[in-house]
Fold this protein.
Amino acid sequence: MLVDLTRAPLSDSFSRPITYLRVSVTDKCNLRCVYCMPEGGLPWLQRGEMLTDDEIVDIVKAAATAGFRAVRLTGGEPLLRPNLDRLVAQIARIPGIDDVALSTNGLLLEEQLLALRAAGLSRVNVSLDTLREDRFAAIARRPGLDRVLRGIDAALGAGATPVKINCVVMRGVNDDEIEAFAELTRDRNVFVRFIELMPVRENLDLQSESYVSSDEILKRVGEIGALQPVPGPPGNGPARYFAFASGRGAVGVISPLSHDYCDRCNRVRLTADGRLRLCLFGDQAIDLRSPLRAGASGEDLAALLRSAMLIKPERHHLRLGEASSRMRAFSEIGG
Ligand code: SAM
């Protein structure tokens, strides 16, 4: 019997199925979160360095041929890319891609959500580190909490669920809001995920001073109500989930430092300038833009994607206050 190798599951050298492609559609952002980016921004990519919509679609088609099944658009702030709904529509139509999701800071979500949903976007993750406007301006260095909250409501209203709220916890900055964030899950169908602050070259001092472990976060949430482990929403994520009795949503923790989940890693990242990055915290990458612009076929690209699996590392080597790669900020590669 003939085996269709193009439909075979993709796995790396450690037998992990790799099915999830995070696509950064821009390195630019309309916020300047203190743990993520310097106030003056970073040296941005020039237009000609960035992949065009057609190039992104070609790479995702090749990824689907190689065995990828889910795509998440990220950045930078993905909603800054012009006509993102058109790109979503093209990706959602690619045979083999079952799920197209988005990670956003939410500022532009309310105005774009319906078009994105109509284009085939299935769900959204919204990043939000505080529920207080004064603090939002201090953490994100720009105002906009009300817009983010309206974006979350719009996502819930439009059924772009499960809606996940990602909150980076920092001691002395927003850790006194852990309980208020957890309370949101009692009567709303949201998944609040607390993320451990991760070291990158731009935030080493802040990271070592302000890091809060997921065990401490869960202990504090447990003090306001008993938590039960729950399976969490379907998806591709590394979070562990817990819920209050009769809570509509759940609390999750993402703990790359204290409980790494490399053994379950199922993802790679495509940067806005067309590099396939094999680990968030390692510099292993291959360039897809040059072969694409030199005329590589879809099959050539799929072969490159398959061969890249050989250099996906077994685990990251993150440690408190130490960057483990040349990356300055997540926005460079799509966090
Ligand atoms: N702009 C989009 C957003 O806000 O979701 C997508 C890109 S942003 C880089 C993706 C996520 O990475 C956000 O939830 C952000 O809080 C998180 N992030 C950025 N730098 C981080 C760090 N050093 N440690 C932990 N999370 C970080």
